[in-house]
Amino acid sequence: MENGESHEGAGNDMSGLRDQQKKKRREAILAVSARLFGKQGYAATSMEEIAAAAELSVGTLYNYFKSKGDITLALYRADLEMVRKASEAVILEPSVDPVKAIIKLMEADLNTTPDYLDGNAWQELLVAAFTSPSSSMAVEWEGGDLMRVDLFGRLLGALQERGHIGKQADIRSAAEVLGALSLTYFMHWLVNLKAGRIDQDSCPIAGPTKRMLTRQVKQLVAGLV
Q1: What is the pLDDT of residues 108-133, one digit of tens each?
Q2: Contact predicate 73/136, CB 8 Å
Q3: Which H or E run includes 85?
Q4: Are the CB atoms for 30 and 71 separated by under 8 Å?
Q5: Residue 170: pLDDT above 50?
């Protein structure tokens, strides 16, 4: 019995090690893919180039991802998961000031992203979403937008329960407006990157952009209090 338990424990350890190795390899594939997409463009990057950059055989790469489309989906989902976790923390303990709470959630949304996704990579993911023969990526973007509206709605609901905004406030409409505003700032960031007005290390919400957002959110909150 003891020997059997020992063998079982060793097997579990080996299985856990393999899972960790697979996770690290998958993350490495995503990182090199994002770098190549951002450097030379989504359309110009081949699966063979991704495999070479990740120091894998093409066959091994296909064991993880069947296409570049699958890789872009994984990149976008990785970002969404980070955004969701950061946003949940804000919603759990929101500021008593509705303006600060909303801006904090907007920052959790737009300023949170995997290290390997810079502005150039994001531009190429956007291209992939609307040029891919499959509709999966476009559907994924829509799902992300709906997730953000839900997160803003939950934050506003929490603020309403605490008496920080009016009981009669139209939470759903306000959340939809904030979701649209978030997308606007994201696109504004990409346009400024493309035009060379800001650098790759800049955040979508910072400096003058944050001041402008604060002014807009104050106006919105004035209608909710």
Answers
A1: 999 999 999 999 999 999 888 878 76
A2: yes
A3: helix 68-92
A4: yes
A5: yes
